[in-house]
Amino acid sequence: MADCTALYAAGFRSTVIYAQSMGDRHHWRAHMLPFAAAVSGHANADRALFHTDFHGVHGHSLPREAYADWLRAAVISASASPADLLDAWHSLRHRRDAAPAPEPRQERRDPAAMPADLMAASSRLEAWLARQQIATPVAQAKEAA
User: Fold this and answer.
1) Which residues pair with 50 in a beta bridge?
2) What's the confidence (pLDDT) of residue 69?
3) Most buried residue, 1, 2, 23, 49, by CB count within 10 Å?
4) Please, are residues 22 and 52 in contact by the beta-carbon 8 Å criterion?
5) What average pLDDT does range 126-134 have in this prediction?
């Protein structure tokens, strides 16, 4: 629970993924919009990604599934660039929704060819998500079978 608006208004070099429920109108208005305004004037403003979605709940609610794919994307993305993160997230979303995924960009990392340290990080993330009771694509496939 931190308001990072002032911190990021001073400038930033990191990539930011801001996930917000569209049903949470108070936090959308009181937090997301001021944060977006604070970062919009910076040279690195394009390193801020804003993801809003409605999850069927009005009010303060963002289910874990809403950010789980972003965590997974951060693990398998070729880099922390917004383009690579968006491509990785999009691929995961399509896979989860059982829709055909678009062709990956040439420089995107193939999850099957990840180095052992990234495979271990991916495995730890999936274990953490399972403990948080977040359905993983693998668990969803097992449940469907």
Assistant:
1) 18
2) 87
3) 23
4) yes
5) 72
pTM for this entry = 0.66
Helix, strand or coil, per DSSP, at residue 51:
strand
- Residue 53's beta-bridge partner residues? 21
C-beta of residue 85 within 8 angstroms of C-beta of residue 49: yes
DSSP state of 52: E
Euclidean distance between CA atoms 43 and 10, whole angstroms: 11
Burial class (CB in 10 A: 0-12, 13-18, 19+), 131: exposed
Q: For the chain, what is the mean pLDDT?
A: 78
Helix (H, G, I), strand (E, B) or coil at 36: helix
Chain-centroid distance of CA 12 in Å reads 19
Helical pair 64-76 and 116-131, crossing angle rounded to 10 deg: 170
Question: First vs last Cα of the chain: how many Å apart?
Answer: 40
Tokens of 88: 């990785």
Phi–psi pair at 16, nearest 5 degrees? -115, 130
> What distance in Å separates the CA atoms of residue 4 and residue 7, rounded to the nearest whole number?
5
